[in-house]
Amino acid sequence: MPALPTAVDPRSDAFAANRAAMWERLEELQRVADEVHAGGGPDKVARHRRRGKLTARERIALLLDRDSPFLELQPYVAWGSDFRVGGSVVCGIGVVEGVECVVTAHDPTVRGGASNPFTLRKVLRASEIARENRLPLVNLVESGGADLPTQLDIFIPGGQMFRDLTRLSAAGIPTIAIVFGNSTAGGAYVPGMCDHVIMVRGGAKVFLGGPPLVRMATGEESGDEELGGAEMHARTSGLADHLAEDEEDALRIGRDVVRRLNHRKLGPPAAIPPDRVTPPRYDAEELLGIVSADLRTPFDTREIVARIVDGSVYDEFKPLYGTALSTGWAHVHGRPVGILANVRGVLFSEEAQKATQFIQLANRADVPLLFLHNTTGFMVGREYEQGGIVKHGSLFINAVSNSTVPHLGVVVGASYGAANYAMSGRAYGPRFLFAWPSAVSSVMGPEQLAGVLSIVARQAAEAKGREVDEEQDAAMQQMVRDKISAEQVALAISGRGYDDGIIDPRDTRDALGMALSACHGAPVRGADGFGVFRP
User: Fold this and answer.
1) How far apart are the C-alpha atoms of 85 and 96, rounded to whole Å?
2) Kind of pairing, strands 175-184 and 137-143?
3) Residues 280, 310: contact at Cβ < 8 Å?
4) What distance in Å separates the CA atoms of residue 145 and residue 185, rounded to the nearest whole number?
5) Does 184 have pLDDT greater than 90?
6) What is the DSSP letter of 251?
7) What is the pLDDT of residues 106-125, one digit of tens each?
8) Who contacts 393 (Cβ-Cβ below 8 Å, separation ≥6)?
9) In 3-state terms, what secondary structure has residue 183?
């Protein structure tokens, strides 16, 4: 098939302006990333090193295969909160002895690796990814347990961490704990519930109650080592399966354990072998200049498709019908995908009906779906309501809800209202959901939301026979616009854990390739049936 044509002109003024705006967002993102990578700060990291310990990221690097990629997940969690960005834990997908694994690593330079509400969200998401995609879960443990001032928000839901470990094991998904330092109180159940446990001599400390708590509870005087040291657990309690001499040795043993798992992917192999995959025809650098800083300026999402799919080849489905949504078939790193891409912002009944049929076809063919978001929502108005926009939008959402092939998503522009749901937003359980720095998401745009609230307030005032205070109304609208504008940006959404991370547009193809590969750790099967479709 011929490659997609392109209308992108890298020499145009519009492209240059778009690229400059994207660079500005990427620079802001890099500043936040630098903060995340700095952990608890230079002083805390230096103190950690003086103790002869590796940082969380150094541990991950030694665990993974040399020069293999690491797809970090939710790195910007807790942005905009009172907690350190990153949630005091590093999570992601990497390759260990040729096996794709989910890896979580506590960062002990951030409040001793203590878990706060954002840590919990991130760890639970990592467990979910391991379960859905049948990926072994490797925990690199050094945590002081719960961040006690926030116990109200983490104690009750935090029990799911341990429940998840047992359910992974029951499902035949291997779990491994490599304990470098503290794993105390509830955290002791992480190694307690993992299939394989490695502890570092002189470093690991695993106990339900440390010496101070034991003294308070029972009056018993005990030292760290006899109460919960690695050697005690290796020789006496039997909790440790392997006793490592140091951190490097523990990571070596961890790699050995993964190599012996005999873990196999249950999904089909790539349709095209890696050595025969054709890269996109167009330069990924051009992805920086496609999306305008003003998302009201339309752009053709097929220009993005052309720069992320193999050979820029895209077999479009129903190209002349429902043209505000493009649907079609392609490959990403040799794996087949069905793509739904918003070409123009508003979705009409035709787009909803086309999408519904396409999702059914993808499920019949056992092909994963990729959603590229840039939508302001479903069309409203008398003509469209009478034409069945609610009914047809519901068809679309029904199909998405009951589709069982893996869903992947990238929010490249806007993702507003019910169209976010139809495009398999976070609430609809996509296997992976990423965002570009240009992404925005909320119930509706700031201008529309402010205007709606103004109309409602005016109608309420008129019903009570009161005059509208125009100055107060204008101030209210501006306040709403400012609030929604701040809440809808990519960092705010990612900070709450509503996606799996903000990616550089140029990395989109590789991020999707890794995510697709991970999805094939589990069987890829389409739905046998859907809910009732209202005609």
Assistant:
1) 27
2) parallel
3) yes
4) 6
5) no
6) H
7) 999 998 888 999 999 999 99
8) 347, 349, 352, 378, 418, 422
9) strand
DSSP calls for 471-508:
HHHHHHHHHHHHHHHHHSBHHHHHHTTSSS-B--GGGH
Q: What is the pLDDT of residues 283-312, one digit of tens each?
A: 999 999 999 988 889 899 999 999 999 999
Question: Mind listing the pLDDT tens digit for each residue in 470-521?
Answer: 888 888 889 988 888 888 999 999 999 999 999 999 999 999 999 999 999 9
User: What digits encode the pLDDT tens for the residues 119-156?
Assistant: 999 999 999 999 999 999 999 999 887 777 888 788 88
Question: What are the angstrom distances between the C-alpha of 126 and each of 133, 404, 438?
Answer: 11, 20, 25
Region of residue 499 (left: phi > 0; alpha: psi -120 to 50; beta: else): beta
Per-residue CA distances from 104 to 46, 57, 87, 138, 368 (Å): 22, 10, 12, 6, 26
Indicate the pairing of strand 440-442 with strand 407-416. parallel
* Residue 475: how many other CB atoms lie within 10 Å: 11
Say if pTM beats, i.e. exceeds, 0.85.
yes
Read off the tokens for 229.
Answer: 């040291």
Parallel, antiparallel, or unpaired: how do β-strands 407-416 and 432-435 relate?
Answer: parallel
368 to each of 312, 450, 520, how far by Cα in Å? 18, 38, 10
Tokens of 469: 């205070």
